[in-house]
Amino acid sequence: MRIPCPHCGERAAEEFSYLGDATVQRPAPDAGVDAFVAYAYLRDNPAGALAEYWYHGGGCRSWLVVTRDTRDHRILGAVDARGREAQP
Ligand SMILES: [Zn+2]
Description:
Blueprint: E1 2-5, E2 9-12, E3 17-21, H1 33-41, E4 49-55, E5 63-69, E6 75-80
Antiparallel strand pairs: 1-2, 3-4, 4-5, 5-6
């Protein structure tokens, strides 16, 4: 799998570290225990496009939001995560 880093160009996935789903939103401080349990442990498993956080440790050391199709691991796009609010 190759990931198109917006700073370095297309690079091998081995240069990156995967963090996880970039669509999860931290609940408000007063949201309650159930909301924090869901935030920490529960994830959807969609078949299709999913925005994920990846770290380019073998390159520019930037955090990226990579959109990947979970059915075939095709990369649909990648943007710098700085200043970006996670999108569902
Ligand atoms: Zn990079």
